[in-house]
Amino acid sequence: MKSCFGLLFILAVFTVILGGGALIWYLSDTAEFSRASTSARPAATPGQPPVATPVRPPAKH
Description:
- The chain is mainly alpha-helical.
- It has two helices and no strands.
């Protein structure tokens, strides 16, 4: 009987850990203050355009 309770306890702990991880992932993916939105600039302040870097052909050996 004790082993049954031990297995149920381990299963409950495992479920709580997986559920907590899934909840953190879901909330971080749907939050309005996530990292992806903080790096975006408002439309009223234009940024500098990216500078093109010339590409050199590979050296032949």
